[in-house]
Amino acid sequence: MSKLVGSRGYGISLETFGDYEQAPRQEVFYTCPKGHRFEVPFAADAECPPTWECRLHGTESEIVDGSEQKQVRAKPPRTHWDMLRERRTDDELKQTLLDVLVERRRWTRAAAAQTLKITEPAYRRKAQLRAKSVR
Protein backbone atom coordinates (compact mmCIF):
# COMPACT_ATOMS: atom_id res chain seq x y z
CA MET A 1 0.00 0.00 0.00
CA SER A 2 1.43 3.33 -0.99
CA LYS A 3 1.29 6.41 1.19
CA LEU A 4 1.52 10.04 0.29
CA VAL A 5 4.80 11.41 1.52
CA GLY A 6 4.36 13.95 4.27
CA SER A 7 0.74 13.19 5.01
CA ARG A 8 -1.00 11.13 7.63
CA GLY A 9 -2.55 8.79 5.10
CA TYR A 10 -6.06 9.20 3.92
CA GLY A 11 -7.55 9.83 7.37
CA ILE A 12 -7.81 13.58 6.90
CA SER A 13 -8.91 15.75 4.02
CA LEU A 14 -6.25 17.55 2.01
CA GLU A 15 -8.64 20.40 1.21
CA THR A 16 -8.09 23.73 2.82
CA PHE A 17 -10.84 24.86 5.13
CA GLY A 18 -11.91 27.99 3.34
CA ASP A 19 -14.98 30.13 3.07
CA TYR A 20 -17.88 27.78 3.57
CA GLU A 21 -20.39 27.15 6.30
CA GLN A 22 -21.32 23.82 7.71
CA ALA A 23 -24.95 22.77 7.64
CA PRO A 24 -26.93 24.17 10.56
CA ARG A 25 -27.10 21.71 13.43
CA GLN A 26 -28.88 21.23 16.70
CA GLU A 27 -27.48 19.40 19.70
CA VAL A 28 -30.00 17.19 21.47
CA PHE A 29 -29.33 15.84 24.95
CA TYR A 30 -30.36 12.38 26.13
CA THR A 31 -30.15 10.74 29.56
CA CYS A 32 -29.84 6.99 29.98
CA PRO A 33 -31.44 5.10 32.92
CA LYS A 34 -27.99 4.79 34.56
CA GLY A 35 -27.66 8.58 34.80
CA HIS A 36 -25.25 9.12 31.89
CA ARG A 37 -26.01 12.28 29.89
CA PHE A 38 -24.81 12.72 26.31
CA GLU A 39 -25.53 14.82 23.24
CA VAL A 40 -26.26 13.83 19.67
CA PRO A 41 -25.95 16.28 16.75
CA PHE A 42 -28.83 16.46 14.27
CA ALA A 43 -29.55 18.66 11.28
CA ALA A 44 -31.47 21.78 12.27
CA ASP A 45 -34.53 20.75 10.29
CA ALA A 46 -34.47 17.09 11.40
CA GLU A 47 -37.10 15.63 13.71
CA CYS A 48 -35.34 14.29 16.80
CA PRO A 49 -36.35 10.83 18.03
CA PRO A 50 -37.69 10.66 21.60
CA THR A 51 -35.27 7.82 22.48
CA TRP A 52 -31.67 7.06 21.53
CA GLU A 53 -29.33 4.19 22.39
CA CYS A 54 -26.69 5.11 24.99
CA ARG A 55 -23.17 4.77 23.60
CA LEU A 56 -21.71 3.55 26.90
CA HIS A 57 -24.41 1.27 28.26
CA GLY A 58 -26.48 0.31 25.22
CA THR A 59 -29.71 1.14 27.03
CA GLU A 60 -32.58 3.14 25.61
CA SER A 61 -32.15 6.78 26.65
CA GLU A 62 -34.85 9.45 26.89
CA ILE A 63 -34.61 12.94 25.42
CA VAL A 64 -33.91 15.58 28.08
CA ASP A 65 -35.27 18.94 27.11
CA GLY A 66 -37.55 18.09 24.24
CA SER A 67 -41.26 18.30 24.56
CA GLU A 68 -42.99 14.98 25.06
CA GLN A 69 -43.76 13.72 21.58
CA LYS A 70 -47.03 11.92 21.07
CA GLN A 71 -46.71 8.24 20.37
CA VAL A 72 -48.76 7.39 17.31
CA ARG A 73 -50.81 4.31 18.02
CA ALA A 74 -50.63 1.78 15.26
CA LYS A 75 -53.81 0.02 14.28
CA PRO A 76 -53.93 -3.47 15.73
CA PRO A 77 -53.72 -6.18 13.09
CA ARG A 78 -57.08 -7.42 11.85
CA THR A 79 -57.75 -11.02 12.71
CA HIS A 80 -59.80 -13.53 10.76
CA TRP A 81 -62.62 -13.06 13.28
CA ASP A 82 -62.60 -9.27 12.72
CA MET A 83 -62.88 -9.66 8.96
CA LEU A 84 -65.63 -12.26 9.36
CA ARG A 85 -67.63 -9.93 11.62
CA GLU A 86 -67.36 -7.21 8.98
CA ARG A 87 -69.05 -9.44 6.40
CA ARG A 88 -71.64 -11.27 8.55
CA THR A 89 -74.12 -10.33 11.24
CA ASP A 90 -74.24 -12.17 14.56
CA ASP A 91 -77.44 -13.98 13.54
CA GLU A 92 -75.84 -15.20 10.31
CA LEU A 93 -72.80 -16.44 12.23
CA LYS A 94 -74.98 -18.29 14.74
CA GLN A 95 -76.94 -19.95 11.93
CA THR A 96 -73.73 -20.96 10.15
CA LEU A 97 -72.39 -22.46 13.37
CA LEU A 98 -75.59 -24.45 13.88
CA ASP A 99 -75.48 -25.72 10.29
CA VAL A 100 -71.88 -26.85 10.69
CA LEU A 101 -72.65 -28.59 14.00
CA VAL A 102 -75.65 -30.43 12.52
CA GLU A 103 -73.57 -31.55 9.54
CA ARG A 104 -70.77 -32.67 11.84
CA ARG A 105 -73.15 -34.69 14.00
CA ARG A 106 -74.63 -36.30 10.89
CA TRP A 107 -71.14 -37.17 9.68
CA THR A 108 -70.14 -38.53 13.10
CA ARG A 109 -73.26 -40.72 13.28
CA ALA A 110 -72.63 -42.03 9.77
CA ALA A 111 -69.03 -42.82 10.65
CA ALA A 112 -70.11 -44.59 13.84
CA ALA A 113 -72.70 -46.62 11.93
CA GLN A 114 -70.11 -47.56 9.32
CA THR A 115 -67.74 -48.67 12.08
CA LEU A 116 -70.46 -50.84 13.63
CA LYS A 117 -71.23 -52.45 10.26
CA ILE A 118 -67.58 -53.38 9.83
CA THR A 119 -66.98 -54.66 13.34
CA GLU A 120 -70.34 -56.28 14.10
CA PRO A 121 -69.83 -59.50 12.07
CA ALA A 122 -66.45 -60.03 13.71
CA TYR A 123 -68.05 -59.86 17.17
CA ARG A 124 -70.77 -62.34 16.07
CA ARG A 125 -68.15 -64.75 14.77
CA LYS A 126 -66.18 -64.58 18.01
CA ALA A 127 -69.36 -65.16 20.02
CA GLN A 128 -70.28 -68.13 17.87
CA LEU A 129 -66.80 -69.62 18.27
CA ARG A 130 -67.01 -69.21 22.05
CA ALA A 131 -70.44 -70.82 22.12
CA LYS A 132 -69.16 -73.84 20.16
CA SER A 133 -66.14 -74.29 22.42
CA VAL A 134 -68.29 -74.24 25.56
CA ARG A 135 -70.52 -77.10 24.32
UniProtKB/TrEMBL annotation:
The keyword ATP-binding does not apply. It holds the Pfam family RbpA. The keyword DNA repair does not apply. Signal peptide: none annotated. Keywords: Transcription, Transcription regulation. Binds to RNA polymerase (RNAP), stimulating transcription from principal, but not alternative sigma factor promoters. Belongs to the RNA polymerase-binding protein RbpA family. Forms a complex with the RNAP catalytic core and with free principal sigma factors. This is RNA polymerase-binding protein RbpA. It comes from Saccharopolyspora taberi.
